[in-house]
Write a structure and sequence with these properties.
Radius of gyration: 12 Å
Number of helices: 3
Strand order of the largest sheet: 1-2
Number of domains: 1
Largest sheet: 2 strands, parallel
Structural class: alpha+beta
Helix content: 40-55%
Length: 66
């Protein structure tokens, strides 16, 4: 089903998240996905550390806007 997504997607995970490999694999199945791993962050940290994640998300949005 992921291969049918026809919009750009920002997929991310913490580098220390036990599910990071699954997130990366999911991103490879989405044609317009960008995957980013944030080193040293676990699953919760990837959601809580907005000062790390948001700049990458904004960069992604700026790239797809053009």
């Amino acid at each position: 089903m992921l291969s049918t997504i026809d919009k750009p997607c920002f997929v991310y995970a913490g580098g220390a998240d036990k599910d990071m490999a699954r997130a990366r694999e999911s991103a490879t199945q989405i044609p317009q996905a960008t995957f980013v791993a944030f080193a040293d962050l676990d699953h919760g940290g990837a959601f809580e550390r907005s000062e790390i994640v948001l700049p990458e998300a904004v960069r992604f949005l700026e790239q797809i806007r053009t």
